[in-house]
Amino acid sequence: MFAPVLNNLFRKDPVRSQAETLYAALAERSRAPEFYTLAGVADTPEGRFDLLALHMFLAVDRLRRETPQTDRLVRRLQEVFFERLDSALREMGVGDLSVGRKIRGLAEAFYGRYAAYEAGFRDAGAALDAAIARNLLGSDDAALAKPLADYVRAARSNLAEAPIDALDAAFEGLAEISHRIISRETK
Questions:
Q1: pTM of the prediction?
Q2: Does residue 5 lie within any of the structural domains?
């Protein structure tokens, strides 16, 4: 009698599991050393957030192309993203009373960056380079962001070909693209 109730109560949400796996893959990709050592992104909490936000943009952008089938996955992925940011802030020593305010600020920063990158792809010009220069390099010189912008364009194209169920593997496959583009263009 209680077995069905207990099964439903403790059953893991497969969409949540998929979101956690995808988040782990994109977070790992955002920690690649070439972004910090060759492309000029600051290896600071802010720089790491900006690279994580960039890879979140790539994931959400890809998932939204399949809407409405992926709406739940987008929501779960964003939940995981903000939960991990919350945990990171607490590990850095941010007090419980300040965490909510900091998360709100990070959410505004993420959605602002998302809008800037989306506009950069819509305009198909130097707008993406300028947004990346501003957000990841702290510069007004869009030319400095060319290697990163080229990586983002190639990554977006590569992810567009990947099936939704294999998106985590596609993020892992971006390692070769970032090595090739960033290493070549920063020499």
A1: 0.90
A2: no
